[in-house]
Amino acid sequence: MVRKLILTFMFTVMIASISFAQDFMLSSPQLESGKNLAIEQVLLGFGCTGKNISPVLNWKGAPADTKSFAVTVYDPDAPTGSGWWHWVIFNIPATVDNLKENAGDPASNLVPAGSIQSITDYGKPGYGGACPPAGDKPHRYYFTVFAVDIEKLPLDANASGAMVGFYLNQHALAKATLTVYYSR
């Protein structure tokens, strides 16, 4: 009987945590999960002729004890052996629930106060759009928002995507991802 109660309790906790995590959602009027990126989100450079504009990102349902947010854009299919970081922004205040279109351009001053955009695999901060090798299979682009349990990651604008990812995976309360594709 005790074993059955323990198993029932564990199952209930597991289901509650799964359903809670599913309440945290990411959306964008420019991105549709499972669909292709528009030319606006494609890089202008490296042989690509996009507009390099970061999309509007909206999130809701973050855990109540969220102290900050972070957003990453990552391509696991890049032919590097380690993927490609397209955008890394962290220390977004917990009162914020969106990023405006083109917030990924550091010159736009559209990011929330206190946020840090750090170095991408393009070698500079800010949004760098999709630009897979010509003729390659469609690449996946993971747009992910993290609900973080600390106000500020102990990093600065020189932090790599991998370093930010390391800290995010230690401090994430929840995350929500939109997966989109692009090929040329």
Summarize the structure in words.
The chain is α+β, with helices and mostly antiparallel strands and 184 residues long. The chain has a single domain, classed as Phosphatidylethanolamine-binding Protein. Helices cover 18% and strands 29% of the residues. The protein has two helices and ten strands. Strands 8-6-5-9-10 form a five-stranded antiparallel sheet. Strands 1-4-7 form a three-stranded antiparallel sheet, with no helix packed on it. Strand 5 and strand 6 form a beta hairpin. The radius of gyration is 18 Å and the shape is globular. The N terminus is likely disordered.
What attributes characterize this protein structure?
184 residues, alpha+beta, Phosphatidylethanolamine-binding Protein, 10 strands, 18% helix, disordered N terminus
What topology emerges from the helices and strands here?
Blueprint: H1 2-23, E1 25-27, E2 44-45, E3 48-49, E4 57-60, E5 68-75, E6 84-93, E7 98-99, E8 116-117, E9 139-148, H2 161-171, E10 172-182
Antiparallel strand pairs: 1-4, 2-3, 4-7, 5-6, 5-9, 6-8, 9-10
